[in-house]
Amino acid sequence: MIMQSLRGRLFLGLTAVIVLAGALGGLLTYQWAFDEAIEMQDSVLIQIGSVLQHGAQSAPAETPLAGVDSDAEVVIRELGTAPRGAVADRQLWGFADGLRTDSLQGRPVRLLLRSRPDGSRFAVAQQTAIRNEIAGELAFRALVPIAALIPCLMLVTALVINRSFQPVKRLAAKLNARQADDLDKLPVENAPRELHPFIASINGLLERIRLMVDQQRRFIADAAHELRTPVTALSLQAENLEQLLLSDDGRARLASLRTGMSRTKHLLEQLLALARYEMGRPGKSPLVSLDQVAKDVVAELLPEAVERGVDLGFEIIEPSWVRAELVALAAMIRNLLDNALRFTPRGGHIDLGIYRQGEAAVLQIEDSGPGIAPADMARIFEPFYRGGRPSGDGSGLGLSIVKRIVENLGGTIAIENIQGAGLSGLRVTVELHHECDARATGRQQAPAAVPAES
Length: 454
Hints:
By secondary structure, this protein is an alpha+beta fold. Helices cover 51% and strands 17% of the residues. It contains ten helices and twelve strands.
């Protein structure tokens, strides 16, 4: 899985480079520090030799040097003015003055031989094994910073890679947060330069999708418009057939035909409305009284509510003005109420509230129906989606049309289930920008509540 991740591959690659570079640098540093430690020990031998060469006193045959680390095991051998004494001393007399590496008494040693002005000679000796041990320890200490630096560099690399990929994660989050119908281009202003070709490709794809969706919308609008005329003609012919003497079976079939044509006509009207409101936000709209439009729509649907046995009325109504097309505003309220009427059982109620909240004009509709299943809540605004429990002859376009109208008006819509002890239903809240109008001051205040007819 790591190799399928660009970030993982980049981290592994840089980690490998850091480890290899650290290993090579450590090897070179160890060798350099080792050689420097050997040279430093040679310098110590030379300095000791210089002190003894110009000194007036001689030391015993083999004396550890005072003032030098005892672990270094540096010793002085006085050889006298002629070969004499032990075999090792006579062997040293045969060597010329200077530094040399040789074997003394069967052990490799580093020797410095010097002669004094009086003709006496001496040797400063140190075992090679001791020298190598001391040099190795010093060289190993030089590796400690490098060994500690490698994991620090790996951590810094991980942080830098993670921070470098933050713009990609933010871009992905923006795309995931978009609605399915949001086809606006992605901004490139604050994006890294390396992402510009990628964003340009996405924007090109979004543009092609937008053109395809526009073509589909135009096709739906044109098809619905062309089909509306023959459906209207068939409806008229069906009405003419009602004037004839028909058998009971014939009238039942005619009723089914008229019901089907009514549903088809309603579907065509909804398709035309959806296509019209999906075309985008219009220019500056006139001021419209939200409460008056709601009253008119309620009065229009009141007979149907009475027939269904549903209590339809206002809980609160305040004068509210918004900028909107009268037809669009009425269609929004009508679709919301039509949806509530289809799902509210007989004996239930639908309550409307229109009030101002800050700078917003709020339309709230509550019904006592079954509400919406949580699994369907995320898709209720999709065209033709009717949920897991469809009811009546709805087309699944009502809430889609409402959302398009609300978005075109620059407002927001929220839908939630009503929860509580013994309560059920659906609450729809639409917020639009409230506009002040001089006509509102001279207008008679509406009553706080308009009771529904039963």
